[in-house]
Amino acid sequence: MAYLIAIDDGHGMSTAGKRTPRLPDSRVMKENEFNRAVAALLDAHLRRSGFRTLLVAPTDSDTPLRERTRAANNAKVDFYISIHANAYGNGWNSVRGIETYHFTGGNEGRKAAEIIHRYLLGGTVLPNRGVKNRKNLAVLRDTLMPAVLVECAFMTNLDDALLLLSDSYRAECARELALGICEYFGVPFNAGSGGGTDEASEENPEEEPGEGGGEEVIQMTAEDANKIIRFLSAAYFATDSAEARKEFNRLANELRLVSGQEPQ
Length: 264
Known about the structure:
By secondary structure, this protein is α/β, with parallel strands linked by helices. It folds into two domains: 4-185, Zn-dependent exopeptidases (Aminopeptidase, 3-Layer(aba) Sandwich); 199-258, no CATH class. The chain is built from nine helices and six strands; from the N terminus they run E-H-E-H-E-E-H-E-H-E-H-H-H-H-H. Helix 1 (31-48) packs across helix 6 (167-185) and helix 3 runs antiparallel to helix 6. The protein is globular. Residues 194-218 have low confidence and may be disordered.
């Protein structure tokens, strides 16, 4: 039977205090806006890759932690992932980055946390705040399976907050979480339809050596394409120009297409 993964989008839409300071354009982002968006994307990635999933906080309300962990324990899930955005104080400050938590003394939790953290760092441009253990976080302490809590950026850092608001960063976090979970369980990540089928080779007969007069075409691998996209993402997150970001998305999708992946 397929592995069952509990997905926890931290807090709720009305949880007091869990939000950014007021942004320059007067917006305020609630933490759960980010958490639930990533959770939904992660859910789709995991189910497409053959996992079963359990959403332990399926509504906008702040499901009590005891109910979340009890639902996971009762369902005998194989792994628990809790998605969060961090904060330091109440106003804007310079603290930023990604950190990942597991339960103190849990070897499998630590292993999963290290894998997931590596993927999050590889797919983003934020500082590495490390893999940490805690014994007083309920979703890590009260679950009977390996559990990991990720803090994907700081709501109280303006640069981080702008990332947390962006659809592209949410999608990147969800993808990296899925890749990490897939590696932990030894399950291939399914990027979607079109991921690796060489349709051209089926439609066109193979040319004999010397025919056609062209150079040999070398197909880019998905791994290499994604490495280039991650490298270029630093420029994406460093600019506020809509035109520059649009061009980045175009180039990234060209790389995905030539490597047999679906555009995003």
